[in-house]
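new request in #modeling-help
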Amino acid sequence: MSSNSNLSTMKRTVEQLKLEASVDRIKVSQAAADLQQYCLQNASKDALLVGVPAASNPFREPRSCALL
Amino acid sequence: MCDQTFLAITFGPCDNCSQNKPLMNIYLKNEPINYCSLCVELMACQGLAKGETTNTLKAESESLKAKLEEERAKLHDVELHQVAEKIDALGQFVMKTRRTLKGHGNKVLCMDWCRDKRRIVSSSQDGKVIVWDAYTTNKEHAVTMPCTWVMACAYAPSGCAVACGGLDNKCSVYPLSLDKNENLAAKKKSVAMHTNYLSSCSFTNSDMQILTSSGDGTCALWDVESGQLLQSFHGHSADVLSLDLAPSETGNTFVSGGCDKKANVWDMRSGQNVQSFETHESDINNVKYYPSGDAFATGSDDATCRLYDLRADREVAIYSKDSIIFGASSVDFSLSGRLLFAGYNDYTINVWDVLKGTRVAILFGHENRVSTVRVSPDGTAFCSGSWDNTLRVSAYLRSSGESELRNILYNTV
């Protein structure tokens, strides 16, 4: 029984590897260029990168309001 | 317990291997049988083709692995940081802790942001799960779980429920009500059942399904309403510590990382492991998708964080320094993907320039290990949870005249 399950597991591994080997790949240079382009396109919207004016950021120091 | 008779159909001894596991109810030759998901998968691989033996299979698997490495190496024509040489380096960072959330009595293990960008759910070692309003630091809800080490918690997309779990081997969903006096524990719904601790959980795009990862080496997709196991993901050979869903635009995949040093990418519908990466030298503690969905980052006990590109099918960057010797427990990207925030076991958070591979800042402040780091949904702030029992929300505010000398940041290249 255990040798049977070992065999099944091995067969499964082989099938899995076949699948992984057949994946379509692109060159690193192209992948890197795409990652870079995404970063630069969205950089202006990234508050942790460029910062936001303190007045509009909800996480600024809490101010107290005076009740008149 | 009433719970057990209700769950008997979906959890119990497998007809094939006799282990107590979540079951899939299937028909074999018109007879209904209850097999666990692993046995269902192995059924498809039974029986040998002509001439196959253990040795031939082993040889075949070795040659396939070599072929895989060869194929990947062919496309490795340049490094990411070389491509990024032409862009400007990042300037000085002035991020400061804006809110400190105190209230947990023990180590904070996990946290998640609500999509409304202001609420946070966090869980700790003592079994408490707390929902906070990060703007005001008020606690809105608190639940005590019946187990300790609540390692996973997640906010539902609607903001109306939270899911959590840990050493109880389950993932439970608590609907949140506006009524402060309501006893949350009474409405608890047990959704997932694993055979070892729950390490991570996440709702999919709706409140209806939850994805979980566990110390039993599997990930699983569950239907919240019925508790039924929809799909199971087998492929890790040790505990799975973390998972992350692909950003919705890119489709139905998720990535998982675990103690077998592997990061696997899965197709949620078929349960298939579509890609696998094994370059870390120790446990992978956290995995997170790049905002575009084309890559993902990992944080590991080998003190490095790495970036893997899915379309190039390889590791494209390593974020490490000789002076960093403690493991990275948690990673997250900023909105544009340019910054990678990583929390480490040496109590610091390192901020990396993703493209250039350099460290741009170190954040101090926590008094014990940083266990979790998450950027808010709109990218305005990030929250870090630590074994010092606190959570800190930090943001970058542009303001003239504000003195930034007190602790936090300096520029290092």
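bot summary: Chain A touches chain B through 54 residues (CB under 8 Å).
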